[in-house]
Each structure stands twice: as structure tokens, then as C-alpha cells.
């Protein structure tokens, strides 16, 4: 069925009016915007739900292999606009609402972001649902229905404050509760075991049960039959603790409810940092046990046996957060279904594939053995047995020495090492950019690479390009359609065809006009939300991403401080007016990151208060950076700051969104920046600083930041001011960290960064040259579409 043909303006208007009559209990003419929003979302959700039934029946009838994407985070953002555009009914719906005197933009604005993720990793999962649906894959995402998503950030007096993100009042309209698919999950207790008739039996006793109740969200593909389901598990207590109740402990038996429901209460707000808390481990097991149970149930209902499980199911685990799915599937096969260990292990390895997202030590998950054993006694036994057999194999078959085995095993030094478990139990291990995958083979996983080289792969990340171009940048969409047609919407590689317009003056001028319009749109938002009037003639230089030392927002800020000094020293020198835009949430417990935000805001205020400099230099700190804010920001950006220490950013995806909208990458040879450079050519990207290899060598040789501090008077002046105080505010923690430790080598790259910033200003002033560069970036960005990445997963990893 062609949905966009079926759902005309008249049909949609009737559906809206029917929904009012049956569900909203109010006449449309008396309804508030909120009620209209609810009705509109319900109509849209029902269209998605009907489409899903058809798609799912078709897949089941053809016994298609299913793909499951397990992730603790899905940073979905808004759904309404995306759904209408992907269904191709945005114009008809706009017109239907117009007849009811409702402005669709107002409706879009009422939707809260589904912020069930921290940053890049969670957004990647969301982009992949979009692409899997578009590619017609029978795919499902699994995660947790956090009642509170990523906190809302406000900046008060330059300091980040967090407020809870209670998104469900406006967001739950997208969720369809499926109580009949509820799964009981067992925590704690003890294992009884023995032998009987040559068979080993285990019995889990004295455990506490928490129910996992699924709530489904639909993600439709673009101009395709496909729909991906995101199944989100909500924790529900069994009412009260039956065993405590039976012991006569009436009051405590009731108290158990809030403790178990805490599991899905809130998203842990750490990005690239493992906290090691028991509640987080509970969340991880809750997600994985519920999802494995659901996948096994579905498989059994289709095939009646698990013998072909590995042929009919691919489970991708996004980072190690859902890696407990591995021992959980072993448990189901061994304990519930009576498989022998070897046969069960074979099924598990065929099923699982693991995506690594970081090489930084503080982000690698290692669970304390005692916590692990007490919370998950049976899973612990299985992990121990995986470890025992793996060690035996290394020793007896491969003759590894004990030293090497200790490095590679799963349980060691009172810790359960989740990355080791994920590598050992998966048939595929992939990094998320060429450089990152190379680093995995060379360093973090080199032992495993020697043992099983065939497992190691790369899939460079991709983004939902249509969300950030077609839905967010109408001006550029129109320009592209006028020049190269619209086939790029379904095949982003066709953006290449835009390249030949790089010598067309009229097209370059239109491109500049589109950027100008988008800068004005952003300026209007900034004026309305913070009262600051931006100068759309200044260059918009943007660094938006989580606040983290490795991403080096402080390198950016140090350079701005240096420019400020320079302008004070050279009041009459020519200078390209610049607007530096930051957006970044810091993990609430990450003190240094919060200091860096305060530093940026203090510098902003110093500049704003100085009549000699304001007008030439401005800093904007956008509060609460989110998917929705990124959709407004990307089209207005001109310089894309991607300045992580080489070797630390696994891929980055913000770089791709910015490139797609014509921003020029100013960055290090890190993550996907390397591949962006390969595709646009070195004349269309601004690369600076150490390579990953050079940074690793320098670290190994003993990096001493004081050398740079002593040698470079710009650094001394800036860092001394941090220590002594900027507008009365001192930043000793930042200053000392840079001078005496500098783990991400900010000082070593500072000089090169200043150089490339100057080069950027020089190039920007040649307007034609800049627009050419911008055009080449747009034309080369097709590769970084999630559709391409998902095709690679489907072909290279899932064998679809
Ligand atoms: C894309 C995106 C990110 C990832 O940005 P990086 O620069 O790759 O770290 C983080 N947060 C949001 C809201 C995003 O949309």
C-alpha cells in the first residue's frame, strides 16, 4: 500500500475528527493546542501501528532472519515530524490541520525530546532504527523505558544545574503498552544444584522478582514498507514481596515496590565513563534478561526449537552495556532448554556481534566480582565457566603462557571484564571508524586479534541524514532538488552529483543565501531564549557535544582567551568577527567538566562587558544541547570543531551532521574526521595537531606539559590567568590539570590549533572559496548516512 497516496488531506482530517470524538472527549473547536497535539500523535501512531502489522506478518511468513539491536540508550529526540516526513504525509497533514486552523509547527514544538540517551552512542542507536526501517530489515531495538531521560541543563551564573527530565506527559503518546508480553526477572537469591541421572540440575531460590513490562515505539522507514519497533522495558514491582509477607514482615513487604521500580526510574547521565554502581548493573541485567526472554519466545513461536536460533537471529550489542545478554542466553539454553554447554556456546557465538565504542580505560566496564555474584548468582556461575573454558583452551590448545592468559580472561583480580566477555562470545567485533578499528586491533584487543583475526571488522558510523537535512534544512533541500533532483533522499551517495556545481557562481550564491537564512533563524532563537542578538555576518564556529576533557572544549576556550588578549593588544588590527557557539552537558559528578563550562561562561561575560572587543568576538553557550537543538543548529553552522586528542574519539557523528549541512571540519586526525578528510580532500578540511600515532609515542616517551607551558608565552599568560582569576573567578583545577598532568595533551596541540584557526579565518574571507569548500563537503557527505552503515552491518555482520 502506498501510504502517502492513501492518506490524503481529507482522510487525515476525518481521522483527526474521529479521534476527537472517540478519545479526546472534547469538541475540536474547544480543544487546546495540547489536546490537538495528542490527537495528532494518536492518529500518526495508529498509521504506524497498522503499517507495522503488515510488515511484520510479511517477515514472519517468509521466515526472515531478525535483527535485534540492544542498547542501554536510544536518544530518539522528537517523533512527530520524523514520522510524517518518513510516511510522506507531511504536506497532507499540514493541510488537514490548516483546515482545522492549527499550525503544524506549533504542534511540533509541543513534543518533548525522548532523551533516553547521553550523546553519540544513544543517538547512533536511534539513527540505526531509522535506517533499518528504511532498508526494510526485520529489526527491533531493545532498551529501558526510563521515566527520567537525560537531565535538563540550565546554566545559572555560569554553572551547570540539572533538573529532572520528566518526559512522559508529552512523550507517552508514542508508546503502546504490551502487558501480555510482561517478563519476570530474577535478582539475588542462591543457586542449588546437583546431579541426577547423569544430568546437572540447578535451582535458583530465594530471589526477588521484578516484572519487565514492554512499551513499544514505532520508527517508520523513509519511502519504504519497513517499520522498526523500539521495545522499552518498564520495571514493575510484583505488588509486594510475597516471601517477606509470608514471613510476617508486612511493612517491608510493601516497601519492596519502590526499590524494584527504581530500576527504570532514571538514565545514568555518564558519557564514556563507567560508574560501577549496583543499580546500573541491575538495569543492565533487567534490559538483557527481558530482551532475551522476548527474543526466545518469539523464535519458539515461529520455529518450535532453538536449534536454528543462531541462523534466524542476529543480536548486536551496542558497547558492553548489554553484554549480559551473552550469559543470559547461555542460561536459557542450558537451564531452561537442556542444551549441552558446547551446543549452547555455538548458538551464542553465532548470534552475538559486539560494537566497541571506546578505547579509554575509564569507560571500559569492569564489575566488582562480589556485587556481580550477589546480584546475579547464576549468571556469575556461567561467566566463571566461560572464563574457565577459555583459559583452558588458551593453555592446552594454543599453549599461551599464564601471563598472557591473565590479560585475556574474563574474571580476574576480583573483576568481571565485560569487554573481554563480549569479544570471546561474539562472532564479530567492530569499531566505528577506520582509525578506531585499527586501534582496537593494534592495542586494546591485540591479543584477541592474534587469536581470532577473522572476528575483527569496521563499520564507520552513519547518521539519519534525512533528519538533519530534509527535515531540518528546507533551504538546502530545495537547492539540492533544483540542481540534482531528489533521488539523494533515498540514496545519499547521489549527493556526489552536487560536486559539479562547485564552479557555478549562481549555485554558490544560493548556497551562501541558504546559510545566511539559517544563521538568522538560529539568531532569532538565541535572541528569544537568552536575549543576546548575534551578528549573522560573523562566522559561526560551533563545538557541540558532551563536555569531556578528551573532546577538549578547553583547548577551544584557551584559544578564544588568546584571541581576546590579542584584540586587546591590537585594538585597530583587522579581525574577522567570530561567534563561538558551545553546547555541552557535563556528567553531574564530573567536577572538572563543570569547571570548564564555568570557564567558558566567564570568558563569555568578560568579552560581552568589554566594548573594545564585543562586536568582534562573542561566545554563546546554548543551554540543554539536545537532538532538537542540534536540528536547529547544524544548518546554521560554518565551522565544525572536532578537536579531540587523536586516538580518543572513536568516530564522532556530530562531525557528520555538520558536514552534511555544509560546515567545514576544523579538527584532528581522529575518528571519522580521517574519513571525512579522505572524502572531501585535504583542501576542503582544516586538519591540525598530532596524529594518533604521534600522541601515543609522546605519551610513551613521557609527556611533560610544563615544557609547552614554559616555552609558549601565550599558554603561560592564559593558564596563569585561569589560576589567578578571570573576572574574579579562579580556575585552579583546570590550570593545575593542564600544567602538571594534561592527560589529553591540550598544550601539545595548542600552537597547531592557533595556526589552523588563523587559516580558517583567512579562507573564510574568500567568500567564493569558502562556499566551494562547503559545497564539496555537502557533496561528499552521502557516505556518512546511516543507510550505508546499516547495509554494511547487514552484509558483513548479520549475513542478511
Ligand atoms: C550527534 C549528537 C551527539 C554526538 O556528538 P559528537 O560530536 O559526535 O560527540 C551528541 N548529542 C546529541 C544531542 C547529538 O545529536
| CATH H-level superfamily title of the domain at 501-691 and 749-788 | Glycogen Phosphorylase B
Alpha-carbon distance between the two ends:
25 Å
Ligand set: pyridoxal-5'-phosphate
Strand content: 15-25%
Instruction: State mean pLDDT (0 to 100 scale).
Output: 97
Number of strands: 25
CATH class of the domain at 501-691 and 749-788: Alpha Beta
Structural class: alpha/beta
Contiguous uncertain segments of 5+ residues: none
Q: What's the shape?
A: globular
Helix content: 40-55%
From the alpha carbons, calculate the radius of gyration and give it in angstroms: 27 Å
For the biggest sheet, the summary is: 10 strands, mixed
Task: Classify the fold: give the CATH topology of the domain at 501-691 and 749-788.
Answer: Rossmann fold
Number of helices: 35
Q: Using the 3D structure, state the CATH architecture of the domain at 501-691 and 749-788.
A: 3-Layer(aba) Sandwich
EC number: 2.4.1.1
Protein name: Alpha-1,4 glucan phosphorylase
Cofactor: pyridoxal 5'-phosphate
Family: Belongs to the glycogen phosphorylase family.
What does this structure look like?
The chain is α/β, with parallel strands linked by helices. Among the domains are: 277-459, Rossmann fold (3-Layer(aba) Sandwich); 501-691 and 749-788, 3-Layer(aba) Sandwich (Rossmann fold), CATH 3.40.50. It is built from 35 helices and 25 strands. The strands form six sheets. Strands 1, 4, 7, 8, 11, 12, 13, 14, 18 and 19 form a ten-stranded mixed beta sheet that branches. Strands 22-21-20-23-24-25 form a six-stranded parallel beta sheet, with helices on both faces. It has a three-stranded antiparallel beta sheet with strand order 15-17-16. Strand 23 (639-642), helix 27 and strand 24 (664-667) form a beta-alpha-beta unit. Helix 11 (278-303) crosses helix 13 (325-336). The model has no long low-confidence stretch (mean pLDDT 97). The structure holds pyridoxal-5'-phosphate. Pyridoxal-5'-phosphate binds next to helix 7, helix 26 and helix 27.
